[in-house]
Amino acid sequence: MLxxxxxxxxxxxxxxxxxxxxxxxxxxxxxxxxxxxSIAAEALxxxxxxxxxxxxxxxxxxxxxxxxxxxxxxxxxxxxxxxALVVPLKNALTIHNTGKTNIESIxxxxxxxxxxxxxxxxxxxxxxxxxxxxxxxKLRMALPPDGLAHIDVRKLILEYLSLLEPQLSFKGDVYxxxxxxxxxxxxxxxxIAIGASSQHTKNDRRLVAVKFIPSLVNTAEAxxxxxxxxxxxxxxxx
Length: 238
Known about the structure:
Layout: H1 4-55, E1 64-66, E2 76-79, E3 92-97, E4 103-112, E5 118-119, E6 122-126, E7 132-143, E8 148-152, H2 154-164, E9 175-187, E10 205-212, H3 220-226, E11 233-236
């Protein structure tokens, strides 16, 4: 027979083992509860997403980006002669649909950037304040994913220069100005243009440089372009 001391030791070990088994059972129960809660939460999230899709609240972001790098010659325009105003799409921006939706129009904002508007013969004397222009460009046909579009900028730039011209003293001299042109696409399923968030693209704005003569905006060629209802576009399917 076991003496009393040995029996006490065995009883203590049995109590510890029982405690460990109880902790294990409790951990399994808690883990099972957490798993059930997690599964239920995931199911609820999926149901909400399905409901949002059905109601049109969840959408693929509409994303358009410029097709060329910032330092490209494509972002330099010369409006010192009326010859720049005669040929459609000679002065154009090329954009790329990098999203997954069909784009039907582009809302464009052109914002003057200080202190980069000045008389070429006196760069130290900058002009301010500078105007901004908003324009909705309706594409001739839907721009599909991975497609390219050329957008004629004659009307956009002339509208900007028309607002800037009254501030310029030397109407027949050559000036330079820099304009930040920001794109906000509108898909065929949207009622208004919604620009993509910065997490989707940082390539939806460009700084363009325009060399111009202020008196150009008053020529017959410029007035003809300004009277056009829409900027001309050309779609290049992928």
